[in-house]
């Protein structure tokens, strides 16, 4: 019988269609920022490991300076594709594509940098956190310290209440949507400022359980119908300029269980609890949203107090 992780393997991004991996090569937001971070963190002669290599492009970025790159990929079709593509590119011979499970593989020698891009918004579905936490433990047991540099170095996640209209040609359908950051949508209105709910620092031990409970002060009148989940991957920290090289995932708009009419000054209480790498449903099922107090009720209370 398959264990839980094996049973979930089809959700790891390991067996998504080859064309999806090809589309990632055309994603300028992803490619530009990973290229910049890898160019910064990988030094001449470095040893590099990539966990979940896909087409091999991130390993190839590293190979421009690295002496050796170990590129681990679980999907045999992607292993063949990465080898085919790397053979067409200068320095591709420095990348060894290894058909192995990222949960089990360790390089034959210590490495300086680990690249891992198994990332989905809110750190759901794909196993980035679990893979890296598992790797750190096994790596330390085999090689001792220090740990390699990780790309990304950290992940910052926030949540924000939205008025979101789920009208599709008159068909009402509250569904999860993924929206391009910075692109205006007439269907969406921000009701309050976003709140930070989790920071994952890959240099430190991280729990797989992500939970948050907090409040928002509503700034605009509307119907709270969704929560926007924002995921910013800090690929590299540039100490000399106190800046970062980031990759911002698509926003995820998640419908709330029941829409709530809100007005400026209302206090909204939100809580959720999910496991990194878990399903979207696990987040949806744990989501609780309620009005803690309204501006009108507080005003009435104050009026009674001062009368």
UniProtKB/TrEMBL annotation:
Matches recorded under Gene3D superfamilies: Vaccinia Virus protein VP39
Highest rank taxon of the organism: Bacteria
InterPro entries in alphabetical order: Arg_MeTrfase (IPR025799), Methyltransf_25 (IPR041698), SAM-dependent_MTases_sf (IPR029063)
Protein's GO biological process: methylation
GO MF, one annotated term: protein-arginine N-methyltransferase activity
Keyword entries, A-Z: Methyltransferase, Transferase
Pfam families assigned to the protein according to its UniProt record, in alphabetical order: Methyltransf_25
Methyltransferase domain boundaries: 48-135
Name of the protein this chain belongs to: Methyltransferase domain-containing protein
Upper taxonomic lineage: Bacteria, Pseudomonadati, Pseudomonadota, Betaproteobacteria, Burkholderiales
């Amino acid at each position: 019988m398959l264990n839980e992780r094996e049973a979930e393997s089809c959700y790891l991004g390991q067996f998504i269609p080859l064309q999806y991996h090809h589309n990632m090569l055309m994603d300028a937001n992803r490619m530009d920022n990973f290229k910049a971070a890898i160019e910064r963190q990988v030094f001449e002669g470095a040893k590099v490991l990539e966990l979940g290599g896909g087409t091999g492009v991130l390993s190839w970025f590293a190979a421009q300076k690295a002496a050796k790159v170990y590129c681990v990929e679980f999907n045999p079709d992607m292993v063949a594709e990465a080898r085919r593509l790397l053979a067409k590119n200068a320095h591709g011979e420095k990348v060894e594509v290894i058909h192995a499970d990222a949960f089990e593989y360790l390089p034959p020698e210590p490495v300086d940098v680990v690249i891992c891009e198994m990332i989905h918004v809110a750190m759901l579905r794909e196993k980035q956190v679990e893979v890296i936490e598992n790797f750190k433990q096994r790596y330390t047991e085999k090689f001792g310290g220090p740990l390699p540099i990780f790309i990304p170095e950290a992940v910052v996640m926030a949540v924000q209440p939205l008025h979101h209209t789920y009208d599709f040609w008159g068909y009402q359908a509250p569904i999860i949507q993924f929206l391009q950051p910075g692109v205006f949508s007439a269907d969406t209105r921000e009701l309050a400022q976003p709140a930070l709910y989790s920071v994952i620092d890959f240099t430190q031990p991280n729990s797989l359980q992500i939970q948050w409970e907090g409040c928002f002060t509503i700034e605009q009148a509307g119907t709270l119908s969704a929560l926007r989940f924002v995921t910013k991957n800090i690929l590299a920290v540039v100490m000399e300029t106190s800046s970062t090289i980031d990759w911002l995932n698509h926003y995820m708009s998640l419908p709330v269980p029941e829409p709530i009419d809100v007005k400026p000054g209302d206090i909204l209480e939100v809580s959720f609890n999910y496991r990194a790498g878990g399903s979207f449903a696990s987040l949806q099922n744990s989501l609780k949203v309620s009005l803690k107090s309204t501006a009108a009720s507080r005003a009435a209370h104050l009026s009674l107090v001062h009368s």
